Predict the 3D structure of the following.
Amino acid sequence: MEHSYNREKTSDKGISNNRGNSNSQSPKKRKTNSVDMKKDGVSEPERFASLSEASQRQRQRKLVLHIDLNNTILVSDAITQEGPSASLNTYLSTVTWGKLNQAGEWEWLSDAPSIQPPHQNAITFHTQFGRDGDFTNTNLGKKFKRIHSDHMHHLEWLDPPDKVLAVTGEDGKAYHSILPSFFHLLETLRKEDRDFSVILRTFGTDLPRVLHAVLYAMEGRHPQFPDFQKVLLHVDQTPGRICCSKKQVVLSRGAEHVSTKLDIKNVYHYFNNLEGIVGFRDNFDWWARNQFRSTGGKPFWIDPQDTCIHHIFIDDNIRLSEDDSIIHTTVFHGKDGGQSRTAPTSELYDICLVQTDLLRAIADKNYFLDCVRTCEERYTAYLAHLSQPGDAS
């Protein structure tokens, strides 16, 4: 079921019906007590109290943040052996849009990168021509060279050399191995005394290195985040695995082994109870065998009746097209959440599913924090919608 509340609507309410009528007169203003003024039958104090209550409920929920690595908090890739420049070039080729014209030549449909297509018939350069780590140095991609250069500048590591938190780029310069915006998210949530956990989820092989680097930073060794040692956020260094089949999802980490075979909610409950920062490698082969459709992607569970928990997945490969998306979302419903259904990405987009805008994540330290804030506000609306009588979910 696809819900309509996730789409922005423009209302004509409040626009005068007299516009364009030169003979119309403005009504006389009536003196009112602002405390007693009501909109839609709700006084301003009541509305403020309602908003405050909603904000409090959001802050009381535990956040379980599932976060991808490559092109989300890393601008490099161990499997493809791409450094920062090539990795950023490859990403840019996935967010720049054009089409083949009648002569069979490529023409751009937008001068600016975007995670959503500017036109219905637009496709990305990557879709048409494949992976290209030299994209902005080619004749077709050179128009985006300035964007690449600017963001490489943002990525530069300007502090003393550090073999854990910095990587050497193709040009010999040092660059951040993990985006500062990710660390800023952790620091801010902890300072706000939020209850949260982070589950790093990747198809790649970077997980052990990333877990080590995060632990290293949390020990107060990151020059931009010297107070991390006061944060007291546990980082588990043991990577886990998630394997999928038609019958079940199996999660393993060290001596732990959890399966959905007997209870579809087992892994969901396991994720709910995790503390600190952990990491899992997902099942790329299963996604490939399912033609890279969302139904073969990283498994993810939402239980709207469990209002004390809010799961959010942030990944650059989350897309509104189910034929080319990476998360298989299961929503529990019915009495005590005993039933389940596969939810389309559009239902939970920017509510529980966030498509990473890597350029913003590089340039804006508040990017991930803003994503979480937006999701929290929209999740409250989502739950309110589902609670309405007659909703089929």
Summary: Confidence is low (pLDDT under 50) at residues 1-40. The chain is about 30% helix and 20% strand.
